[in-house]
Amino acid sequence: MTTEPLLTEPLLSVRGLEKHFPVTAGLLKRQVGAVRAVDGVSFDVVKGETLGLVGESGCGKTTTGRLITRLIEPTGGKIAFEGEDVTHMSQGRMRPLRRDIQMIFQDPYSSLNPRHTVGAIVGAPFRIQGIKTEHGVKKAVQEILELVGLNPEHYNRYPHEFSGGQRQRIGIARTLALKPKLIIADEPVSALDVSIQAQVVNLLEDLQNELDLTYVVIAHDLSVVRHISDRVAVMYLGKIVEMADRKDLYETPMHPYTNALLSAVPIPDPKRRTDRERIRLQGDVPSPLNPPPACRFHTRCWKAQEICRTVEPPLTALAPGHQVACHFPENFAGNPSGNAPSAPADGQEKEPGTASPVS
Amino acid sequence: MSFLELKDLRIHFPTDDGLVKSVDGLSFTLERGKTLGIVGESGSGKSVTSLGILGLHKGTRARISGEIWLDGEELVGAGVEHVRKLRGKKMAMIFQDPLSAMHPYYTVGNQIIEAYRIHHDVSKKVARKHAIDMLARVGIPQPDRRVDSYPHEFSGGMRQRAMIAMALCCDPELLIADEPTTALDVTVQAQILDLMRDLQRDFNAALIIITHDLGVVAELSDDILVMYGGKCIEYGSAEDIFERPEHPYSWGLLGSMPRLDREPTERLLPIQGSPPSLINVPPGCAFHPRCPYADRTAGRSQTEVPELLETHGGHRVRCHLPSDQRRGIWENEIKPNLEAS
Questions:
Q1: Does A199 contact B at CB distance below 8 Å?
Q2: B319 domain-assigned
Q3: For chain A, what percent of residues have pLDDT higher than 90?
Q4: CA of B309: how far to CAs of A128, B30, B151, in Å?
Q5: Would B23 be classed as within a structural domain?
Q6: ipTM more than 0.90?
Q7: Which CATH number fits domain A12-244: 3.40.50.300, 3.40.50.10240, 3.30.870.10, 3.40.190.10?
Q8: Would B93 be classed as within a structural domain?
Q9: In terms of DSSP H, where are the helices of chain A?
């Protein structure tokens, strides 16, 4: 699987990344299967850009984020950061790199130690990395608190004294402490109230401009992802099914799954309730323990034909910078797989019980 | 008289830290076959309202006053036993998280059968048949087999369908759904919203949908009630709230939200500050510390609680600014920014 040639060296480069969690049974803990949470994911992230990773629960987006930060060990594939292979780097050698790759967590309630003051939480990275600051750690921490819109005088307060939005700012302050180059944000706003979400989204954008940060934003909310990302990758059952620039992905989505996702988002406009064209997928995402063969989306896809059940579609660039893994993409005139799409046999097209576009 | 009518409902909880005024003077009406969306942030009192209507606060320390009229019966003063008889049969609830709302030790079928037999004097066999019919009605495949499954054997979307089946099994006339799709994925959410729309049409129930998601509200609601700090701050038809909202908080909610149906804006327009603590609601207009227009009220917003006043055709707003000034701000200052690309 190759990606488009890039003009600049990517900051982060991921190739064929895999993570299989073993499933054991019985007294002897024999391995009876594996949850293929991430199953061959490749992408690049260029310095200064924001890549959005979207998908439904269980699609492997969070696992991908944790693999990049090496919080869990990959089963296969390669992760390179600034050209250096970090896939199986030892904890000791990895530690200095952790300054450069940081993570923002989803839940601002469980990701902050309730018994530590804000000063201790945000100052911890300095202590762990043994970094000396010019005017002491306290001064440095207070500067960061101010940067994320918190009062520096809150240095000695505890997390419970803050609201959800402020706690998320504390988490962001901790992330920024060591001036990282790459930040993985795993659902950074989904636990927050609507009005607070917008504050945090704006803060992330401001920080990116000010500090020249690169983000990988993992989220399930397609509207939030469109707002903050430059490029977006859609994941389904451990694989990327479509990756493109934001505008291309949202305006001319090619993969049927992306189309279905976009049309499922409720639109806050009561007038459009009736005139919207909707694609309604039936059923749930299949279990990653036993994913469907070939194209993993074929069990829910209204365009699926025989080839989708037998041949896995590769992620190929169908337009400049627009990669899709589908035999029968939408919004595309050519023939992606090289196989002549045969006319669907009788009864195969839109069987009752499979999804069909409803207007 | 309306099917459901709340008059000045107040639900206060005495705590060691002070009196929590979760719901503070809420009034609205709802007819059969209509859907009311209640929108608000966490701590705005929207869930407590629904528990209050169902009488689930009884036996707690909550202090409740005001009136709840359901089909000509007053519920606030009614006895615990009487309200229990209505609950399930006349009114029912769909909770946010079906995994914690269902009992893990009993099969899904048994939980539906139990609810049905409490209100209907029928044999287990008849009730079981009814449970299977209900599961089929909400779109669960192979209902005659799935009726014997435990909740953990269902996926999230199936579980939410089963809970809807449970809520509907006694044909309630009032259905309250508290964040019914928040725990679900977006494609499953779309299925559940479609299902709720179909079922409401078939059963002709009155539906209250409580959520923080303006998209969900816009999909389902006829009328919308926006809550802030335990009070209704704006009430109107779905078109009123989305096309010509008049409260600065409603503007803030609309500006905070990235939208897929519009060109992306450069920046979101958030509301400053955080939602108030219900122990310590700001004096005057509860929204004034976050309101960018508070200074245009000549200090009234700090001292005086604004009344919920009708501006036109059932559209009611709780704000000190005069209506024509609000409409001017919306048309000239807010709306163009929301639509700017």
A1: yes
A2: yes
A3: 62
A4: 58, 19, 46
A5: no
A6: no
A7: 3.40.50.300
A8: no
A9: 61-68, 91-98, 118-129, 136-147, 164-176, 194-211, 222-228, 246-251, 256-264, 306-310
The answer to whether residues A14 and A63 touch, using CB atoms and an 8 Å cutoff, is no
Instruction: Provide the H-helix boundaries in B169-245.
Output: 186-203, 214-220, 238-243
Digit-coded pLDDT (tens) for B178-211 = 998 887 888 888 888 988 888 888 889 999 999 9
Residue ranges of chain B whose pLDDT lies below 70? 340-341
Residue A6 pLDDT greater than 80, yes or no: no
| pLDDT, tens digit (0-9, with 9 covering 90-100), for A84-112 | 999 999 988 998 889 999 999 988 888 99
Q: Do A198 and B213 touch (CB under 8 A)?
A: no
Residue B50 within a domain: no
| Token pair for A292 | 């469907």
Q: What pairs with residue A54 in β-bridges?
A: A219, A234
> With bands split at pLDDT 50, 70 and 90, how would you rate the model's confidence at A280?
confident
Interface test with B, best of A50, A150, A194, A251 (most B CBs within 10 A): A194
Instruction: Check residue A353 and give its pLDDT.
Output: 39
Question: Cβ A265–B256 below 8 Å, yes or no?
Answer: no
> Of B171, B186, B213, which residue is a domain's last?
B171
Q: Which domain holds residue B138?
A: 101-171
Q: Which residues of A touch B218 (CB under 8 A)?
A: 266-270, 273
The per-residue pLDDT for range B133-168, each reduced to its tens digit, is 999 988 888 899 999 999 998 888 889 999 999 998
Distance (Å, rounded) from C-alpha A207 to C-alpha A220? 22
Q: What is the DSSP letter of A295?
A: S
* Of residues A269 and A182, more confidently modeled: A182
Do A24 and A16 form a contact (C-beta atoms < 8 A)? no
| Binary contact (B187, A261; C-beta < 8 A) | yes
Nearest residue to B47 (alpha-carbon basis) of B83, B96, B103, B82 = B96
Residue B30: both structure tokens together: 């709802």
